[in-house]
Amino acid sequence: MEHKIKDHSNAAARFLKDEERATWHDETLWFVRSKRDKAAQQLPEWESLREMASGIKAHTLSHLDKYLLAFEAKAKANGVHVHWATDAEEHNRIVYSILAKHKAKNVVKSKSMLTEECGLNHHLESQGISVVDTDLGEYIVQLRKEQPSHIVLPAIHLKKEDVSNTFHECLQTEKNNFDPAYLTNSARIVLREKFLEADAAITGVNFAVAETGSIVICTNEGNADLGVHSAPLHIACMGIEKLIPKAKHLGIFLRLLARSATGQPITSYSSHFRRPRKGQEMHIVLVDNGRTQQLGRKDFKDSLKCIRCGACLNTCPVYRRSGGHSYHNSVAGPIGAILAPNLDMRKNADLPFASTLCGSCTNVCPVKINIHEQLWSWRQILMKEWYGSPAKKASMKAMAFVLSRPRMYKLSGKIGRKIMQWLPGLVNNRLNPWHKNREMPQAPRQSFNEWYEKNKR
Amino acid sequence: MKVALFIPCYIDQFFPKVAIATLQVLEKVGCEVFYPVNQTCCGQPMANAGYASLANSCNKNFIQNFYGFDYIVSPSGSCVAHVKEHLHYKPREKEAAIMRNNVYELTEFLTDVVKVVNVGAYFPHKVGLHTSCHGQRMLGLSSMSERVGPSFSKPEQLLNEVKGLQLMRPARVDECCGFGGTFCVTEEAVSVRMGQDRIRDHAANEVEYITGGDVSCLMHLEGILKRQKSRIKVVHIAEILNTKWSIK
Ligand code: SF4
């Protein structure tokens, strides 16, 4: 089981091998964080906005049943079909059955991390339905048959050269034309076609308003609008935690979301959908997939406040230096590391350890999720349950034993320092991960304790 | 003012001069300092690795050694933060609660409790401050770049009063250095890369020293500096404050 601990760590080490790319990844995301800082600083009320947003989410989560039912009733009254899915499989089945009923063959999708979480593309494609991700970044990773590496900037791990190669291969663009404008335009031409011929549009949901039964989708490319407005069928897929009580609360979240995500005052498109337009059919799929379970975990329920702005990824010094794929989960970074173990503890047990617990995520988070504390709490649970190998547990036990007994502690400290002085090869070797790229500290002749006994007593 | 000196295990074993400097600075500002000789470890290494349950006997020992003093002071932000947040021991929960409240990191103790920022130190060098995360974000020793609000820094306040010292700010003022306890070993590659990046940022300012309030971060940075054969040295803030400015 010990090898599991190393999953993120190994993937990160591989990512860091390409030093130049790693530097570029780090600097690009740091640039986004700096933009966020500037945008936040311009609002003296920033901290109180965070406080309000966090409070509204806490309230909604503790009355989630009531708000969900209210939302469903309103949406139905607006002429929307509402579905409930307990897990990813049911979600995929529902979406497929709606598409099948309409004999839809071509689907355009606007970015939705939920469908990513559920593996919807794969499911639909295996049934002969073509799904095109229309967000540019998503489209790029889709062509490359990769997962998004960031929840807001899905292709941030790629450079324009990579995109050029991918487009040359898949879209027959000019070889070695790295001009971003050229590349974007080439994708746009293809995507326009897809929008026009789509039988259905699938979108995610950023906010669902219980009071009105409406949903809000935020994009910078307008691709959700384009899809929904050209297709005769709209399916919106949302996690049940996307709810907010009232329309008047939207202002708070919209102000926080874009600033936290990219430093923009607001996303280019905040589209509100309340009812199907004439001749169109609209469906909303409400998905649980582990969310009620997380809601029931006292220490982790606040993770459901997340509005998926990505700020905690951009700020995380570990994420910036390991890339999103090292988190092997649809949501990467600090928030992913506290959501993933809820879905599968065994598979994701390494993620809460992929952090220095520096706490930057907690303080950047617009809805004030105590992310680093939850990482700490997951560590406790994972170790208690089964994750720690017997060897690790034994060594920790031995350590705790020695460290809680003053005499034994003093003696073993002395022995340890002596070994380091006399036999430095014992610690300065390749088996010691510290020593690979760092020198060990020099062991002093006497400890402070020994100095004190001699000089102060 | 009865002050108990809390010297974390790794400082005791590997960095006794930091402990001595801390003791002497506290005496210099007029504190009556006691060092409970049977102290060991606060339990943080176990807790952060997911074995908080094993830290129970460390907590018991900590309470036995430190209960009853007006203040507990330590030259390590992360150990203090750990005690503040996680010191619990069922049979002596009342005492633990009091102690979680009167444990202080050295720089905050000097600025907030003793209220002396000029300790008469002299350090004629170009120095970069490494802002350690636990001290900054958990103890609130300084404002952080993520938050909107007035900017302040307790360690900087002290360093600004040191004669001859030229304080340099790195471009990324408060990014983590990558130490992170067992993280530095389990995530060796990321940890080292983070440390190298911090050093590059400080080196751009042509500093002679990198200082900070956490020996663990400094030890990690020092390990990398030495491997790179850099001429930049690390020095704990207590050691700077313990230097003397004779012509007062
Ligand atoms: S946890 Fe907070 S910072 Fe991270 S994506 Fe969610 S809302 Fe944004």
UniProtKB/TrEMBL annotation, chain A:
<dbReference type="InterPro" id="IPR017900">
    <property type="entry name" value="4Fe4S_Fe_S_CS"/>
</dbReference>
<dbReference type="Pfam" id="PF11870">
    <property type="entry name" value="LutB_C"/>
</dbReference>
<dbReference type="GO" id="GO:0006089">
    <property type="term" value="P:lactate metabolic process"/>
</dbReference>
<keyword id="KW-0004">4Fe-4S</keyword>
<keyword id="KW-0408">Iron</keyword>
<feature type="domain" description="4Fe-4S ferredoxin-type">
    <location>
        <begin position="296"/>
        <end position="326"/>
    </location>
</feature>
<keyword id="KW-0677">Repeat</keyword>
<keyword id="KW-0813">Transport</keyword>
<dbReference type="InterPro" id="IPR009051">
    <property type="entry name" value="Helical_ferredxn"/>
</dbReference>
<keyword id="KW-0411">Iron-sulfur</keyword>
<dbReference type="InterPro" id="IPR024185">
    <property type="entry name" value="FTHF_cligase-like_sf"/>
</dbReference>
<dbReference type="InterPro" id="IPR037171">
    <property type="entry name" value="NagB/RpiA_transferase-like"/>
</dbReference>
<protein>
    <submittedName>
        <fullName>4Fe-4S ferredoxin</fullName>
    </submittedName>
</protein>
<dbReference type="Pfam" id="PF02589">
    <property type="entry name" value="LUD_dom"/>
</dbReference>
<dbReference type="InterPro" id="IPR004452">
    <property type="entry name" value="LutB/LldF"/>
</dbReference>
<feature type="region of interest" description="Disordered">
    <location>
        <begin position="434"/>
        <end position="457"/>
    </location>
</feature>
<dbReference type="Pfam" id="PF13183">
    <property type="entry name" value="Fer4_8"/>
</dbReference>
<dbReference type="GO" id="GO:0046872">
    <property type="term" value="F:metal ion binding"/>
</dbReference>
<dbReference type="GO" id="GO:0051539">
    <property type="term" value="F:4 iron, 4 sulfur cluster binding"/>
</dbReference>
<keyword id="KW-0249">Electron transport</keyword>
<dbReference type="InterPro" id="IPR024569">
    <property type="entry name" value="LutB_C"/>
</dbReference>
<dbReference type="InterPro" id="IPR017896">
    <property type="entry name" value="4Fe4S_Fe-S-bd"/>
</dbReference>
Automatic annotation (TrEMBL), chain B:
<feature type="domain" description="Cysteine-rich">
    <location>
        <begin position="3"/>
        <end position="83"/>
    </location>
</feature>
<feature type="domain" description="Cysteine-rich">
    <location>
        <begin position="127"/>
        <end position="221"/>
    </location>
</feature>
<dbReference type="InterPro" id="IPR004017">
    <property type="entry name" value="Cys_rich_dom"/>
</dbReference>
<dbReference type="GO" id="GO:0005829">
    <property type="term" value="C:cytosol"/>
</dbReference>
<dbReference type="GO" id="GO:0016491">
    <property type="term" value="F:oxidoreductase activity"/>
</dbReference>
<protein>
    <submittedName>
        <fullName>Fe-S oxidoreductase</fullName>
    </submittedName>
</protein>
<dbReference type="Pfam" id="PF02754">
    <property type="entry name" value="CCG"/>
</dbReference>
